[in-house]
Structures are given as C-alpha cells and as structure tokens.
Amino acid sequence: GENVEQHPSTLSVQEGDSAVIKCTYSDSASNYFPWYKQELGKRPQLIIDIRSNVGEKKDQRIAVTLNKTAKHFSLHITETQPEDSAVYFCAASQTSTGSARQLTFGSGTQLTVLP
Amino acid sequence: DVKVTQSSRYLVKRTGEKVFLECVQDMDHENMFWYRQDPGLGLRLIYFSYDVKMKEKGDIPEGYSVSREKKERFSLILESASTNQTSMYLCASSHGSTGNNEQFFGPGTRLTVL
What is the chain A residue with the closest CA to B34? Predict the structure, then answer.
C-alpha cells in the first residue's frame, strides 16, 4: 500500500517569513495530493490539492509543488501570519481505481508562526 | 455546506466495555471513513465504507468493527475497549465519484479508556 512521509514534524517561523513542508510518497500510481489544515481543537479541512497532471498550483499565499519523478510534493506558505499556526497534513491517493476513496496521510507538521 | 457530526465530543469508558461511536453526514456522500488521530502518527484509517452495508478494512482495523445500515450513518464499534484505544476518533465523508476525493471531517470524539 501507499506510504507517505512528512517532514518536519514541527516548524517555527517568524511572522512574514515563508514556511515549507515536504512529503514523499511510495506508490507511483498515486495521482492526487491534498493538504489539510487542522487548527487547535478543530477538524481538518482541505486547503489545497494538486493532481499529477500539473507541477504546481497556487492559491493566494499557499502553493503546492509536485515532482512525480522523485515522488515528493511540498506545501509553501508565504508571508506567514499567526492564523497560519496549525497542524498541516499531506495525503496521497489514486483517483482511477477502486481505492480512489482512500487517502493515506502523512504524520503531520505543527507550524507555529511567532509574532 | 457539508455537515458531518459525531455523537459525542468526549467519552470515558472502562476496559472491556463495548463502545459505539456514531457519525452522520447530511450531504448524501457515498464514502465514509473512520480514523484515529494520535500525536506524531497523523491520521490512520481504521475502516471505510463506500456504500450501505459495504465496508473495507483500513490500515489498523484490529479491535474495531463498523456498521453502515443507512447511507448517512457510519458507526464504529469497539467490541471490548482497551487502554491502547484511548485516542481521538475522526469520522469523514466524501462524494462517490473518483474525480472528487475531498474528505469532510467531523469534530472528533476524544475517547478515554480507563
């Protein structure tokens, strides 16, 4: 099955700086890579996703890049703000088979934005 | 707006008790999932269901069972709770089409087994 590794487990940045979280996956058939944000005491919510037919996707201050050859993808947050402080999870999935319903999650990154 | 609800936010049970966790979604989603969340381990899939009365094992099904008698409801059952099942349990649902994998999560149930 799929295995997703996520680094770092904790990340502290100064407000206004950029943050990068990296994930690697093992199954070359995976083609969908979402990122979820979980604020303290709240449920995880999708913030951005990318499919394997593109190499980069951007939404305001967040972007995700994908390197299929190396089987890794990254989340980039620019101009970080205190409200970006949360746990971020990457995930991987296949969308073209019966296992399309499953996501395999990374272990999470606790991002702290220091004022 | 998708709403996924779970029957309890906090639950305290004793070792050996049978525990039921319920999840309900109101968006007519085909797929429903149960995860447990532990620090440093991320979200680990216990079971999922892609249709009524259908279930598939996830990565850590041992000690758990599930039931899906109605499309909107997915129950997680701990037949005989043990202390190592103390955790946060998250339910999620998603649409059935293979092109849309976004999962919508419930608020979670923090279960403590004494």
Answer: A102
